[in-house]
Amino acid sequence: MATIPISVANNVFGAKLVGGLLNSALWGMSCIQVFAYFTGSKRKLDLPIIQHAITGIVFMNTVHAALASHVVYWYIITQYGNPTSVGTIVKTESASNCVTEITICVVRFLFARRLWKLSNGKIWLALLVCVLSVANMGVGVALAVLIGQVDSVYLIFTAGGIYGVMRRTARALSAVHIVTEVLITFPISYYLYTLKGGIPRTNSLINVLIQYTIGTGGVVVLFSVAALILNVQSQNTDFGNTLYMTVASLYVNCYLAGVNFRNRYQDRDEDPISLHISQIGATTPGYSTTNDVNSMAQKKTSVI
After folding, report:
1. Long-range contacts (CB closer than 8 Å, 24 or more residues apart) made by 81-85
2. How far apart are CA 143 and CA 114, in angstroms?
3. Alpha-carbon distance 200 to 197, whole Å?
4. Which of 73, 78, 103, 139 allows an S-S link to 248, with CB 3.0 to 4.6 Å?
5. pLDDT > 90: what percent of the chain?
6. How many CB atoms lie within 10 A of CB 58?
7. Residue ranges per domain, the chain?
8. Res 176: pLDDT
9. How far apart are CA 96 and CA 69, in angstroms?
10. Where does the chain have alpha helices with state H?
């Protein structure tokens, strides 16, 4: 049996194993989060179509996890000791990339809806996010299918002609992913900031939501930037794909984290709020009782 060099095992098989393990961990987190969402009483705040969409993204994330696990199994177990498998693109890896693009698109639609609601119905930015997401998904799925037909992955990294076009298209898609995520993260943070008023408790919640938005969006951007850099600079390794394998699960977890945080706040906010008498009526004009303050807080957080 031919011996596979240690460098190849680390750079290709090791990278796929790490990516599969990371993705499995994130899939487990998404299962916990969706369980918390559907067992909570505040999920009724969302329209049925949103609840169905959340079910859909978790289902697609599960399919993605299963496909990614098969990719790892094929390279490490089925093709154990076979050096010719290093450059081979297994069909399930192409299918996994297709599911990734579709999942990201659906999650971005959910974020676009949030952006639209926070902006008081300003449609242009949310529409731009949707257009970029659909275009990204369409080109990404087509590219994944084409790459699945290539005899060796190294042709994509080194050859010219159509392979060079595929290589540049993949990098352009990664760049558009980053731009789209920035168009989601910072406007949502800005519109959350504009919701601040005279209610300290609601302002505190909004500050935390802004931190959540920037933190989760920042993680996705960092992973996408790192994957793009690795794909450009490390053409003989698969570490760029290691990060790409986790992007869909990251998106799902980021969205569910925000929704579950909102629900936990809503549950906690049902308890009586203690306010000093000097604060009542001085916080927001027209809201002079504890129930009014609760109503104001509920109204502001219901758009999240």
Report:
1. 81/1, 81/2, 81/3, 81/4, 82/2, 82/4, 83/2, 83/3, 83/4, 83/8
2. 29
3. 8
4. 103
5. 24
6. 20
7. 6-268+289-301
8. 87
9. 10
10. 6-8, 15-39, 48-73, 91-118, 123-147, 153-158, 162-194, 200-233, 239-268, 290-301
Cα 35 to Cα 57: distance, rounded to the nearest angstrom: 13
Which among 113, 136, 128 is positioned nearest to 54, based on CA atoms? Answer: 113
CB distance 89 to 162 below 8 Å: no
Q: What is the mean pLDDT of the chain?
A: 78
C-alpha dihedral sign at 7, 10, 15, 20: positive
CA 292 to chain centre: 36
The partner residues of 284 in beta bridges, in order of sequence, read 287
Using CA atoms, how far apart are residues 93 and 69, in angstroms rounded to an integer? 10
22 with 102: CB under 8 angstroms?
A: no
List Cβ neighbours of 299 (8 Å cut-off, separation of 6 or more).
Answer: none
pTM: 0.80
Closest CA to 267 of 18, 109, 44: 44
Residue 73 has pLDDT above 50, yes or no: yes
Whose tokens are 């750079």? That residue is: 11
Q: What are the pLDDT digits (tens) for 89-147?
A: 788 888 998 999 999 999 999 999 989 988 888 899 999 999 999 998 998 898 888 87
Mean pLDDT, rounded, for 171-184: 87
At 287 the three-state DSSP class reads strand
pLDDT at 241 over 60: yes
- CA dist 237 and 132 (Å) reads 29
Pick the CATH number of 6-268+289-301 from 1.20.1070, 3.30.360, 3.40.50, 1.25.40: 1.20.1070
The pLDDT tens digits for 152-169 are: 666 666 666 676 677 778
Decide if pLDDT at 203 tops 60.
Answer: yes
Q: How is residue 19 written in tokens?
A: 């990516």
